[in-house]
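Q: How would the structure tokens look for this protein?
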Amino acid sequence: MQDSLQQPTVKPLPIDAEAGNSGPPPTLFTILPYIMLPMGMAAIDSTMVSTALPAIIGSIGGVTHISWIVVAGLVSGVIAAPVYGQLRDVFGSRRMMLIALSIFMAGALLSALSTSLVMLVVCRCLQGLGGGGLMTLSQAIIGETIPPLERAKYQGYLAAVMVTATSAGPVIGGTLTAYFGWRSIFLFNVPMALAAMYLTLSAPVRPVSKQTWTFDYAGLVLFVAFIAPFLLALDSARSLTTSVVASETALFAFAGMALMGLIWQERRAFFPLFPIRFLSQRTIWMSDALAACHGAALVSMFTMLPLYLHVVRGSSASAMGLYLVPIMLGIGTGSMLTGRMVSRTGQTAIFPSVGLTIATVLLLNQALHIGQWSQAALTISLLLCGASMGTVMGVVQVTVQSAAGRSALGSAAASVQISRSVGAAIGTTLTSGVLFAALRFADPAAAPAFAALFSADGVSTGQFLLPAATAGISSAFQAAFVTIAGFTAIGATIAWLIPKRKL
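A: Here is the predicted structure in token form.
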């Protein structure tokens, strides 16, 4: 029965041969141009928006619900990822990429024209529905075009693009907001989307399955019913107040029931949104779990580190940006070196196994000596930590794609993206909770004032709240960094246990 559910396997062909012409095999410059721009757009979007939140508040109001601007894009993007994964496996990457870019561009343009917070949130949902496909489809194109041994090298290049785009987001967003207003950060995406569409139209057309197919609507409804309340509950949990306990409990309970229904539906669906047949494989679900741990650690570190630098070390905004550069360089370098070593040796899981073990030691060392290191020592530690963290995502994508098979590349890429996003949401929530719990334990008066740094207007008012949050801050950040080290330790354990360790 399971064999009958599998789509026909398409034999890999050189890129020009698949387009109907004879030609050389794919090269770096024939593949990356029409992949890295959509991926860069998806990575840069959320970080650009975060820098404009104070300006948006001043323009359209709604300070108490401003976080919905970020949450809306996250929720809709996670929901869209498996949809694009399944549709790609039927209709092909090129067609679905054009649809995703069109939706993303329409959402960005409408966001720029928004006159109220409600309208902006709705438009951000639309933009997220397009953005959710950009990352998934880019990863699938690598899988369908590049031989397994070469994929890790290309994944390293893509990881460098992602890191560069993510780190450039705050700079670009802040500059555009300062000189042209907050609406310009959304208009910035329009010419980029048009350029990406042009490059996609220039890409070769690949064969797709011709078999009869029906969309898993029930699976989509159940997935939305699970992921939307789950992420909303995680977002509200950051406030750590008793007033939201009842609503959080209800949201988590509803999400749990929807998840059970989703699993039941996917087991019986003829064309499931989440193919249980490969998600049940140990290599795939462990790789997805590794991606979740990596997302939890990386996003938590990017969340906690600027706060630590500002609160404990008194760094300015420009200095905080300089401290983040070593991490970015380390991740990019580690990703590219790992990709090359995987391509040469065929070994896969050994690199994140060793890398995350080293990252755990470095994070624990940072936690123990958090207030004692010089600027140079902290910079070196962050560089090495970034390089160690850079050994993960490329290997995860290659491993999952190889285990899932060519006919399910879209679903495989979507599973990694969803795992990483959910892991990031859980990780930042837990790390923030540990930080505030440690603050309350050290000084009950410090936590309420310090919590304002996480509010929508915390970017602009946080400096006035710092004097009230002085006692026990260093120990609170120690606990936060130990929590992040816990994520990397769990990830390292999973990496050592992944059964498929060579392509």
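The chain has a mean pLDDT of 78.

Residues 216-270 form one domain.

Upvote if useful.
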